[in-house]
Amino acid sequence: MGDFPIGKVYSRYPAQTDNAGWLYRLYQIFKDTDAYDIHWIIVDKYIKKTETITVENQTFHLAPGTSQTVGMYTGYLLNRWRTAQIVKKIKPDIFHGWGTERFYGLCAKDFKGKSLLSVQGILTAYCQRATIAKFEQKQCFYERIALKGVDYLTTESLWGQERLLEEVPSANVTLWEYAPQEYFFSAKRKLSPAPTCLLAGTHSPVKDISTAIRAFSSPKLSHVKLYLAGIKPNSLGNLSSNIIPLGRVPREEIALLLQQSWCLVHPSVADTSPNIVKEARVMGLPAIVTSECGGKQYIKHGQSGYIINPRDVDALIDSVLKITSSAKTSITMGQYDQERCRELLSINTMKKGLFDIYHRILTSD
User: Fold this and answer.
1) How many angstroms separate the CA atoms of 237 and 133, rounded?
2) Burial of 208 by CB count in 10 Å (0-12 exposed, 13-18 middle, 19+ buried)?
3) What is the mean pLDDT of residues 151-156?
4) How many whole angstroms separate alpha carbon 87 and alpha carbon 334?
5) What is the rounded CA–CA span in Å between residue 13 and residue 159?
């Protein structure tokens, strides 16, 4: 159960392009196996009517739900009740919830059986390290309930595992990564003539775009362009001419930007395992991340990128200068350890990891 992009498989609904890409990857994995009988539950305000459909040997149970705001202030009771009614019909051996940003973790907790929750953004940890939105601050309350109430947890990084164990020391946490889309594996780098860097993110203080802006506003980096994917033009006031907001960028176009970039910049102050770092590394792009970023597990400091302290402008400037000192340096650093990253983040590794988790849960007492 999660934010599955139902429009990708059912024409009644709009075909979302970027929403919940990892869940669609799961759908692709399940198409090729008969080991499990897979049921997806989608309860949301945009669902028009209650119905059940079957696509590629997978069953989708759809039901109208409340908005996120209404859910927040009512304990998501209606959505949880409707989920429980569907679960009674399915009688699953495992309930797998996806993410704590909404009510799916609560539904996993409610399940009277073996429950698994895959945690993406760890809101409680984010709230401790930055001033996150009020809605997300309130959602932390439900996150803690879910984390303490399920049997098994997965997260994408050692950083995430450490944060979950801080919150629930007795938690059964497994590291399990999600595979990037195939076009990130097949894309070949084509560096821009002059040095460029890419930062993909939002205005959220957790992403700490302000540190990157201060760094690239320095005369030392005036010759290096910084493209901001996900940031609307004119939304940050006056910027140096080498800092260029691009607005919303579809995932396929992100791949094109990565191909041309000399390095990825990701200065987040808290991040479980950002998609963009995985995508960059399987493509062979060096990355600069912080010590509070789960993506650091794919960076060999000084060899395939740099791991710096959060909010360290000088370290970011120095790292960018080193990577962009020549095209050859960028290419060589990007290729370092690339094959290990590609193997760890392959869809086969993702599939094996998930099926191993399911097998372990099903055979546990």
Assistant:
1) 21
2) buried
3) 97
4) 46
5) 36
